[in-house]
Amino acid sequence: MMADENNTENTAGQAPVVDNAGETPVANLAPSEAGESQSPAGGDPSEPRRGRGRGGGGGDNRGGGGDRGRGRGGRRDDRRGGREEEDDGIIEKLVHINRVSKTVKGGKRFGFAALVVVGDGSGRVGFGHGKAREVPEAITKATAAARKKMIRVPLKEGRTLHHDGNGRFGAGKVTVRSAPPGTGIIAGGPMRAVFESLGVADVVTKSVGTSNPYNMIRATFDALVNQTSPKSVAQRRGKKIADLLGRGGASAAEAEADAAALVE
User: Nearest 5°: CA angle at 213, between 209 and 216?
Assistant: First the structure.
């Protein structure tokens, strides 16, 4: 028994076996030391090791996924920029938003209705309305509808109307009048949005009757559709613009100058 114990103690107290190269075997080292001592075959030992297995692969995949996500984000930004270029030059004004409901078997479904006026600021204007479950989608529908039915309105000197006019729709009645420079837009509510989108700088308006924005907008467009210019009247009558402008007692030279300076 004593001999066996001595042999056991000697074996336990012996130093680890050293290989021919004088290095300690990897099996006798701690797992952390073993991982640090080994380096990829043919690689630079100074480079950090990439973890093998699910942990390392997950890190690489997450990095790649982030790059791909950023790439998709860039494409979305490009598309958004393209839409801004398409919208350039078109003025969009939100006139009214109303919450609407639809009664169905299970109860009520609520949505939103939007009224939008669009124009290019130089004689073209249109309006449209759209309904959807969310406000942004309703505005998008209304804007698309307004772009499809824009009308051309002749402007005097590019700042006001050529003559006075009246418009009516339902219980709404509006009166529009041309104004001298510096007057500004004397209009309120939905009518102001129409003239700002149209590009009119000087106008005087009056609305009588209903204050419903839908009827006011339609009455205003009824007045604008009936607007004419001396150029269109002269073409329709087969005359010269100077002949029409000289009827108010002006001389022929003044009529010719006014006709030359006239901008539709």
Answer: 50
Q: pLDDT (tens digit, 9 = 90+) per residue, 35-52?
A: 444 444 555 555 555 545
Instruction: Name the one residue in this structure whose structure tokens are 């009824």.
Output: 222
Q: Per the domain annotation, does 113 fall within a domain?
A: yes
**Among residues 219, 49, 35, 260, which one has the least CA distance to residue 127?**
219
DSSP assignment string, 37-57 = H---TTS-TTSPPPPPSHHHH
pLDDT of residue 261: 54
Query: What is residue 83's predicted lDDT score, i.e. its pLDDT?
Result: 35
How many Cα atoms sit within 13 Å of 186 on the Cβ side?
Answer: 16
What pLDDT is stored for residue 173 in this prediction?
94
CATH number of residue 145's parent domain? 3.30.160.20
Range 232-238 contact pairs with CB under 8 angstroms and sequence separation of 24 or more:
232/154, 232/264
